[in-house]
C-alpha cells in the first residue's frame, strides 16, 4: 500500500503497569529519545504519553514540550465526587490530552456512553484534546466493526462537538480483542475498518486524527500504511528502545513521502 502522509501521531498509555520511580525513569529515557529525533523536533512526529495520575505533574515537567495525557477524568466539572479528578485540575497542571472510554474502563468499570460523552464535553470545555478510545468487543467483519466505531464516536462527541467546530479530536481505534494480545489485529482488517469509519466520520469531525491501538509496536505503522494517522501504543514500548524503533519507522515513512 502506498504511504501518503506528512505527519504521524504516536501516543502511549502506561496504564497501571509501572511504579512511580519506573514511570519517571522511563519518562527521562523517552525525553532523551524525543530530543534526538529530527522528525519529532520539526513536528512531523508528535508523541504524547499518559502516565498514572500521581505522575502527571512530574511527567509534564520531564517531557516538556511534548504533551502529556491523563488516562481518565471525572464526568462532572466539580463537587462532591470522592476519588475523582476534574478536567479543570488536569488542565491547571499542564495536561493537554485526556484518554476517554478505554476498553478497560468500558469493560471493567462499566463506563457508559453517557459518561464517556460527559467526559468528552468537560475535556473539550477545558481546551484539552480527548483521546477517545473506541472499538468492537469481539472480532467480526470490518463493516460491522466500522459501524461500532462510528456509533461510539457519535455517542461520545455529537452533543459536545457540533459539526461546525473543527476542533481536534483523537480517536484511538482499539479492537478490544487485540488489546493485551500477542500481536495486533490483522493489518487488512484494520485498514478496511478504518477506511470505512474514517470516510463516515471525517465529514462530521474534520479535525479527526485516527490512531490504531492494540498490541502495536515496531512494524505496525508500516503494515497499516496510510489507513491510520498513527498509533496508540501499550506494552510494546515499555522498553524505550522499542519506542525509539517506532519513531525511526515513522520518520522513515515520512521521509519516503517528503523526498
Ligand atoms: O490498550 C492499549 C493502549 O491503550 C494497547 O495496549 P497493548 O498494546 O498493551 O495491547
Structure report:
It is a single chain. This protein has 259 residues and is α/β, with parallel strands linked by helices. It has a single domain (8-258), classed as TIM Barrel (Alpha-Beta Barrel), CATH 3.20.20.70. 42% of the residues lie in helices and 15% in strands. It has an eight-stranded parallel beta sheet. The longest helix has 19 residues, at 240-258. It is globular, with a radius of gyration of 17 Å. The chain starts with 7 loop residues before the first strand and ends with a helix. The chain binds 1,3-dihydroxyacetonephosphate. 1,3-dihydroxyacetonephosphate binds next to β8.
Weakly predicted, low-confidence segments: none
Count of domains: 1
Oligomer: single chain
Average per-residue pLDDT, rounded, comes to: 94
User: Percentage of helical residues?
Assistant: 40-55%
- Catalogue the ligands: 1,3-dihydroxyacetonephosphate
**Percent range for β-strand residues:** 15-25%
Q: How many DSSP E strands?
A: 8
Question: What is the string of SSEs from the N terminus onward?
Answer: EHHEHEHEHHEHEHEHEH
Strand order within the widest sheet?
Answer: 2-1-8-7-6-5-4-3
CATH C-level name: Alpha Beta
Amino acid at each position: 500500500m502506498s504511504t501518503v502522509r506528512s505527519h504521524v501521531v504516536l501516543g502511549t498509555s502506561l496504564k497501571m503497569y509501572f511504579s512511580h520511580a519506573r514511570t519517571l525513569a522511563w519518562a527521562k529515557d523517552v525525553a532523551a529519545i524525543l530530543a534526538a529525533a529530527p522528525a519529532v523536533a520539526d513536528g512531523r512526529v508528535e508523541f504524547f504519553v499518559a502516565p498514572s495520575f500521581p505522575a502527571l505533574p512530574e511527567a509534564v515537567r520531564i517531557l516538556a514540550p511534548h504533551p502529556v495525557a491523563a488516562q481518565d477524568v471525572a464526568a462532572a466539572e466539580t463537587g462532591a465526587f470522592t476519588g475523582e479528578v476534574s478536567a479543570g485540575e488536569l488542565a491547571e497542571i499542564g495536561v493537554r490530552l485526556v484518554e476517554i472510554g478505554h476498553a478497560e474502563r468500558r469493560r471493567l468499570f462499566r463506563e457508559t456512553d453517557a459518561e464517556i460523552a460527559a467526559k468528552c464535553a468537560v475535556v473539550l470545555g477545558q481546551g484539552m484534546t480527548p483521546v477517545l478510545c473506541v472499538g468492537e468487543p469481539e472480532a467480526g467483519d470490518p463493516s460491522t466493526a466500522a459501524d461500532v466505531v462510528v456509533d461510539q464516536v457519535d455517542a461520545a462527541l455529537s452533543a459536545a462537538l457540533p459539526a461546525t467546530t473543527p476542533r481536534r479530536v483523537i480517536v484511538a481505534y482499539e479492537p478490544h480483542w487485540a488489546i493485551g494480545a500477542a500481536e495486533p489485529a490483522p493489518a487488512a482488517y484494520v485498514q478496511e475498518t478504518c477506511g470505512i469509519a474514517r470516510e463516515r466520520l471525517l465529514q462530521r469531525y474534520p479535525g479527526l486524527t485516527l490512531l490504531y491501538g492494540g498490541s502495536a509496536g515496531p512494524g505496525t505503522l508500516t503494515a497499516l500504511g496510510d489507513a491510520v494517522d498513527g498509533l496508540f501504543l501499550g506494552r510494546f514500548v515499555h522498553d524505550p528502545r522499542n519506542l525509539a524503533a517506532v519513531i525511526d519507522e515513522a520518520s522513515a515513512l515520512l521521509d519516503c513521502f517528503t523526498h
